[in-house]
Amino acid sequence: MQAAFRVDASAAIGSGHLMRGLVLADALRRRKVQSLFLCRGGPDHPGDVLAEHGHAVHLLPPLDNPLDDAVATAAHLDSRIDWLIVDHYALDHRWESPLRHRARRLMIIDDLANRRHDGDILLDPNLLPDMNERYDRLLPPSCRRLLGPSFALLRREFAEAAAAPPRTRDHLKRLLISFGGSDPGNATGRVLHEITPLPLDADVVAGQACPHLDDIQNLCRASNGRWTLHVQTRQMASLMARCDLALGAGGSSHWERCTMGLPALVTAIADNQILSSRALAEAGACRYLGESHSIPPGAWRRALQTLMDDPAPLAAMSRAARSIVPDANGADRVADILIQEASP
After folding, report:
1. At the fourth CATH level, which superfamily is domain 157-324?
2. The whole model's pTM is what?
3. What does the buried/exposed string (b/e) look like for 92-119 if buried means 16 or more CB atoms within 10 Å of the residue's CB?
4. Could you tell me if 191 and 336 are in contact, meaning their C-beta atoms sit under 8 angstroms apart?
């Protein structure tokens, strides 16, 4: 069995789509399924990351038209492809329909619900009040829907870490600061500047493609050992396990934090993170400070000072988060479904 993934990653669009694909490809490989990645080329293309994970990759030309992209994608597919999996906000039914005959099945990973699709399975791990209705007019009737955080594509390390007894969080001494792999707006730098006066230690996580990495490195070096920088880490679960509170953005990080029962102060650094961040805040799993560009100066420091003065809400947030994603086996669930659906 073979699968092909159409994803892109760059400093501009982030690495979330790529990482979701990698997690699922790794789960499929454990089931003897080979995966091929089709990604747009460019100075910051993800070829090295994919090669490090042992997956084949073909680079596509920078095409803006979905039909042209479909033609370029088809050139790298053959009759052995069992699943074509697309995770891309710029692609919709205009890309999917022409490729239906080049793969036995097609799966879409999406969380926007803002365009029509043509596929056999749609995966959206969001937690929203209207999850069951938001795709009603966007999918063919035969398309199977995998909806909600139980299908979140999380790395295996989280499943292993989540199996440990939950840690009680009743004080605030150590932070996890992570705003995604690219953090184009340098939310990390802003937070570090704001919290400098506070007596808190921190693990700071950034991606190799972050355009502000030098600035973040300098801030961590100047912290007198209080802040430790981790670049392109594969130890996120263990970092979350030892921290008392996370400061970060929405997206897949929501489900990682929930699995670990890690309370969080959260912002949205992209429009698609707003609704899920609000929903998690309403469920008590985090505190949502608003969109990144609209957070007033000093808001992060004030929110932290409030929790330092009264850390009791940390335990309540932790319990609420664990209840939303009680395990991290979403990738295995999805991989098993793909195997079953592709069986004769």
Report:
1. Glycogen Phosphorylase B; (3.40.50.2000)
2. 0.91
3. bbebbbbbeebbbbbbbbbbebeeebbb
4. no
